[in-house]
Amino acid sequence: PEPAAVETAIKEAEDKCASGTSGECAAAWDNVEEISAAISHKKVADAANSDPLEQFCDDNPDADECRVYDD
Amino acid sequence: MQTLNANRVRATPAGLQARSRARVCRVQAAKDGKTVVIGLAADSGCGKSTFMRRMTSIFGGSAKPPAGGNPDSNTLISDMTTVICLDDYHCLDRKGRAEKGVTALAPEAQNFDLMYEQVKAMKEGKAADKPIYNHVTGALDAPEKIESPNILVIEGLHPFYDERVRDLLDFKVYLDISDEIKFAWKIQRDMAERGHSLDSIKKSIEARKPDFDAYIDPQKKHADMIIQVLPTQLVPDDEGKILRVRLIQKEGKKLFDPVYLFDEGSTISWIPCGRKLTCSFPGIKFYYGPDTWYGEDVSVLEMDGQFDKLEELIYVESHLSNTSAKFYGEITQQMLKNSSFPGSNNGTGLLQTIIGLKVREVYERITEKEVVPVS
To answer: NCBIfam families from the entry (chain B) (predicted)?
Structure first.
């Protein structure tokens, strides 16, 4: 999800809690949590794939700078 | 980058292997129909994914989403383990929950019949066409086919809620994070995000709390092992930076033996800091002793504080017994291997690693097969 999705979700939750039922209010804040968790998981995954050499070698295992021999 | 290059220089020409292959292939066991099922329960943002990475790391190989499938799949597959996220068994999507006014924590939002059928099928060696809950769009996507693995891990909010699913599980773990620490962790996770503020984080936790207390938290009485994360008692700490972490282990189970410190069954308080272990302020304190948990006998192993040098963990490890390690130093080696993961310098990483070794032991006792340790 784009970072703006959290902003929208928070605004929605605040509206729902001002006007809707308590169930709708809780569901809206739960939605904020779900989107925040998805963004944070994506950041962790991106950080794990951030090495440019690793990225290159995933696509080109035969290149000189990527070859690994087992013995 | 330097270590990678060093690896490559060391290599000698013999047979060129695919890079990923060269790094894995350390586990002996092959699938023979007996699937061991592990359940992990915790709330969102409580470190389930870090725990999973520590646990799968003990079996070697890297866990990856199913190749060529839905890019938003929640499943992680490695040689030995398949981890499925129970959010995939939501029966209401994001829109449906908003309309009905229920959270993802509510039992009405889960399809427990399908969860039971598919976990049972995979335990019996059959493949399952499991739905995918897309966390990006909030919709239920087309199913993906999951083959029956050696070790099936189901993680999420409700692994022990339904009695039928609970009875399928061979080992149950619950991550119990106190309200103070949950708040501190969510601030760390979300504060930098646009739109979030202290107020929005607090409101989100408060709004979800009634459902959490009603449906998620009561599951912890069923767990075989519970990791409790509490604020430190060593110093006043409002930020949740220093943790007191407790491993609560049920006694008298067939498939595992609880870890103990020095002398089994005694009550011990131990401060290891001194000549052999360097601790800066506020130091480290261990506790071990018997207790009861919802009327059942348990042993508690507790660590308060944090390590300065991870290598010195070997000193602590040498005083623990029944860790299910296969060689002296295995816990320390596993912690060093994953030193970049959150919690590596405190009790969360240490006790999660110990649970990972227990999972391996449970697998070995059920299948009567040996898993070769991974270095």
So the answer is: PRK07429.1
